[in-house]
Design goal:
This protein is of the alpha+beta class. It is built from six helices and five strands, in the order βαβαβαααβαβ. The chain has two domains: 92 residues, no CATH class; 67 residues, no CATH class.
């Protein structure tokens, strides 16, 4: 499917019941989404009745704001750094090992290392470079994201319920149902 995009939006509600009403509507109309997450306000907890009601729906998740990657730049950076580390560190090791073997430099000969030891030290330095590269490169993306999500964070701090919806590939969100849900605001998120 060329050009298929996912649409992501956040709905802002005054209370939990309005979130449930929208979920019930989705279930009645057999609408399936790629992601449906209710974000609990900062100052509230789910009651046992609310938790029981949510457990009836297997397609909805309940999360705190700090666990949502798209709304937590710090978490996003940590996950991105972990993913980059998985391929940059082995690549750095191979590059360091190869460079040491190609150049035949004896940089660490004062430690009494032979050519094999020199190659291993080169590989270890390459691994360290890959680790540092993952930190620097993951920190350099989306530096201004905090400004973009400030209104959403304020809604959460002010006791509003947030609902993160993501369409399936090739499908649009059910905008007519979303507009009828009586949400306070609809915030579109860029991919």
């Amino acid at each position: 499917m060329r050009g298929a995009k996912l649409t992501k939006c956040i709905l802002v509600f005054d209370d939990f019941e309005k979130c449930l009403n929208l979920i019930n509507t989705f279930q009645e109309k057999s609408i399936f989404l790629s992601e449906s997450t209710i974000i609990i306000p900062e100052d509230k907890r789910l009651s046992t009745d609310q938790q029981t009601t949510i457990n009836k729906f297997n397609f909805i998740k309940i999360e705190a704001l700090e666990n949502i990657r798209v709304l937590n730049p710090k978490l996003d950076r940590q996950l991105r750094q972990q993913n980059m580390k998985k391929w940059l560190m082995p690549f750095g090791f191979i590059a360091g090992l190869t460079f040491s073997n190609m150049t035949n430099l004896s940089t660490f000969s004062f430690l009494g290392l032979d050519s094999f030891g020199e190659s291993l030290v080169g590989g270890a330095l390459g691994t360290a470079s890959g680790y540092l590269g993952s930190i620097v490169s993951s920190a350099s993306i989306n530096l201004n994201r905090k400004k973009e999500i400030r209104p959403i964070l304020n809604f959460n701090k002010n006791g509003k319920w947030l609902m993160l919806l993501e369409s399936q590939i090739g499908y649009e969100l059910p905008w007519n149902l979303i507009k009828e849900s009586k949400s306070i605001d609809i915030i579109f998120l860029e991919n």
